[in-house]
């Protein structure tokens, strides 16, 4: 029996893949496309680090106080020597990229291709357009030594908990995770505390999060828990003609 309620011809490719089993050929073809997407991204992003990824809402415009604060965050990270990476879109992402860009730092984005077309914001030195959410999330984590979580929606929470889970399970190292905006995230932090009280997470997992409203405190935390801990020094890397890099 064939289920047509998905309107497959109107869906993006990732959505069609997630709608259920398809022919073996289509499933195999999808894996090749994903592999190509990863290889293309690795080539594009190989020389950008070390990065700090800033997560946050795409819906806040320039009049929003969180937009202004994200600009300060982006500038501060750039002044520390980090490349500022975001999802490449508008809102908080644009603000963080803008702060880094205007501070003379390096600004990059991993932009998702959606049916309603999220365009890369204008404050990017380098960006890549990606078809698949899971590839994009992987890249936003792969190159970064810290994560700054600004106010946002479901996607921001998804990225926050993806990062914490990978740290908690030691899939990646104990990189600092900064939650910016104590009032906005008050109930979220309370729920994490309740999880620790009920032993669904370890009380030590509470230490993975640093909640602040201060750019200065964020800078000091990242200096201690990223730059000093991992002895970060920005070294120039030269593209190799052997690999066709520019």
UniProtKB/TrEMBL annotation:
Keywords: Cytokinin biosynthesis, Hydrolase
EC class name: hydrolase
Family the entry assigns: Belongs to the LOG family.
Enzyme nomenclature, EC number: 3.2.2.n1
Coiled coil: none
Cellular component terms (Gene Ontology): cytosol
Pfam families tied to this protein: Lysine_decarbox (PF03641)
Name of the protein described by the UniProt record: Cytokinin riboside 5'-monophosphate phosphoribohydrolase
Molecular function per GO: AMP nucleosidase activity
GO process annotations (BP): cytokinin biosynthetic process
Catalyzed reactions: AMP + H2O = D-ribose 5-phosphate + adenine
Keyword Hydrolase: yes
Source organism superkingdom: Bacteria
């Amino acid at each position: 029996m064939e289920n047509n309620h998905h309107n497959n011809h109107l869906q993006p490719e990732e959505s069609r893949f997630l709608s259920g089993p398809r022919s073996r050929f289509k499933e195999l073809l999808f894996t090749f496309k994903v592999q190509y997407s990863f290889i293309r991204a690795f080539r594009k992003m190989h020389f950008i680090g070390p990065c700090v990824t800033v997560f946050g809402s795409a819906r806040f415009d320039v009049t929003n106080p969180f937009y202004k604060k994200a600009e300060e965050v982006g500038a501060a990270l750039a002044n520390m020597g980090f490349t500022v990476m975001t999802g490449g879109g508008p809102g908080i992402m644009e603000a963080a990229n803008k702060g880094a860009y205007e501070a003379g730092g390096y600004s990059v984005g991993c932009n998702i291709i959606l049916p309603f077309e999220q365009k890369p914001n204008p404050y990017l030195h380098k960006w890549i357009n990606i078809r698949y959410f899971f590839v994009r999330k992987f890249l936003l984590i792969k190159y970064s030594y810290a994560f700054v979580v600004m106010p946002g929606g479901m996607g921001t929470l998804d990225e926050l908990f993806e990062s914490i889970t990978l740290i908690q399970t030691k899939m990646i190292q104990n990189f600092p995770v900064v939650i910016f905006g104590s009032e906005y995230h008050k109930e979220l932090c309370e729920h994490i505390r309740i999880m620790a009280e009920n032993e669904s997470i370890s009380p030590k997992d509470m230490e993975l999060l640093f909640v602040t409203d201060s750019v200065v405190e964020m800078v000091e935390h990242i200096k201690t828990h990223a730059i000093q801990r991992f002895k970060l020094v920005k070294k120039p890397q030269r593209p190799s003609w052997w690999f066709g890099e520019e």
